[in-house]
C-alpha cells in the first residue's frame, strides 16, 4: 500500500507550470492533505475515516518512476524525488472511505 501527500503534487504542479495533477495517476493508494508523509518512514500511524482506526507501518520511500513524466507532466519524475510518498504495511484490518480522516502518528513506536 502507498501513501502520498497532496501538497507534494501541488508543489510539483507549481514547479513545472502544470495544471492540477490527478493524484490517481501517481498510482498511490491513499492521498493525504496536511500530513508530512515523506517523513514517516519507520513510523506507525493510524487513519480513521469513521469506520474505526486502521493502523499502518511506513516501511520505505515510494520512489517515482519515469512514467510520471508521461502521465503527470514532463519533469514530474525528477520533481517527485524525495516526495513521492511512502510504502506501508497494514497492521490491522479495517475500512477507509474517501473524505476526511483522522490521522495520528504513534511516536512511541518510532523509538521501540
TrEMBL record:
<protein>
    <recommendedName>
        <fullName>MOSC domain-containing protein</fullName>
    </recommendedName>
</protein>
<dbReference type="Pfam" id="PF03473">
    <property type="entry name" value="MOSC"/>
</dbReference>
<dbReference type="InterPro" id="IPR011037">
    <property type="entry name" value="Pyrv_Knase-like_insert_dom_sf"/>
</dbReference>
<feature type="domain" description="MOSC">
    <location>
        <begin position="1"/>
        <end position="105"/>
    </location>
</feature>
<dbReference type="InterPro" id="IPR005302">
    <property type="entry name" value="MoCF_Sase_C"/>
</dbReference>
Amino acid at each position: 500500500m502507498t501513501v502520498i501527500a497532496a501538497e507534494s503534487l501541488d508543489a510539483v504542479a507549481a514547479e513545472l507550470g502544470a495544471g492540477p495533477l490527478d493524484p490517481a495517476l501517481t498510482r498511490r493508494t491513499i492521498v493525504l492533505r496536511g500530513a508530512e508523509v515523506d517523513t514517516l518512514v519507520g513510523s506507525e500511524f493510524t487513519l480513521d475515516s469513521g469506520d474505526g482506526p486502521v493502523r499502518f507501518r511506513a516501511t520505505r520511500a515510494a520512489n517515482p518512476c519515469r512514467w510520471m513524466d508521461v502521465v503527470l507532466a514532463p519533469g514530474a519524475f525528477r520533481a517527485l524525488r524525495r516526495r513521492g510518498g511512502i510504502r506501508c504495511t497494514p497492521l490491522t484490518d479495517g475500512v477507509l472511505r474517501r473524505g476526511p480522516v483522522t490521522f495520528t502518528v504513534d511516536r512511541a513506536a518510532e523509538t521501540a
